[in-house]
Automatic annotation (TrEMBL):
This is NAD(P)/FAD-dependent oxidoreductase. It comes from the Bacteria. PANTHER family: THIOREDOXIN REDUCTASE 1-RELATED-RELATED. Pfam families: Pyr_redox_2 (PF07992).
Amino acid sequence: MKQPDLFDVIIIGGSYAGLSAAMALGRSLRNVLVIDSGKPCNEQTPHSQNFLTQDGKTPKEISTLAKSQVQEYETVQFYNGKAISAQKTDFGFEITAENGQNFNSKKLIVATGIIDEVPDIKGFKESWGISLIHCPYCHGYEYRGRKTAIIANGDKAFHISSLVKNLTEEVRILTRGKAQFTHEQLEKLKNNQIEIIETEISELKNENGYVKSLVFEDGNEIDFEAVYGAFPFRQHSEIPKDLGCEFTEMGHIKTDMFQKTNVSGLLVCGDNSAMMRSVSNAVMTGSVAGAMVNMELVADDF
């Protein structure tokens, strides 16, 4: 079998984690192909916060600057398209794009992120990432002192409420059904004057994604200025699963401390493998993945 033209590394996903990995590899003179469909999960978010030197910039501003810097490394190439499948080969990995084009590499990094499964309730999708938010560290400061709802239940709701209570006194938990708290949790919520509402939500009224109020199925309507939501998610790409990666109970790809999966030569980084969803964490894990892939290539060749 003739060896195909091989990149040292293919990176699937060209947002913060993928670009960070590409920079580390470009600086090590590795021939890299970044395959990116151009649809990051935070494209609706107006501002990115809590990332040193870039605080308050739009996600697009940060990624555009990052890509322009990575493009300065001549050994890094970009392919605008979606990777739909991958398979192990004698030489490493073969990646197939949506248009049928194939690419081959010795190593593979997957930085494809996750997709949030936002409830199909009127106003939710329009507000997701704007005033319907997921993280107090990413968005909480901007909504400090505001009337705030937390759409979650059980341990998740309790955890978020403990963080949000530090930012505002006006907090309600909306469980959308029977509340599932321990006696101790209920006592702490009561002591912190956090009301629990079990009624299902029928609508999130908003203006251009900024919440004005929540309407409940019993007809009641309550004004809010911020809403935290703890929703399920799924992997943005099935490629890690198809290649045999192991997953955590929550649905993240399992890695060791160096972003390595159980599949030889395959590393992952960013939101697909981390509970901490932030630009800074994506950049950090991408940098680690890039460095570790380079070390694997060094070990193979030296």
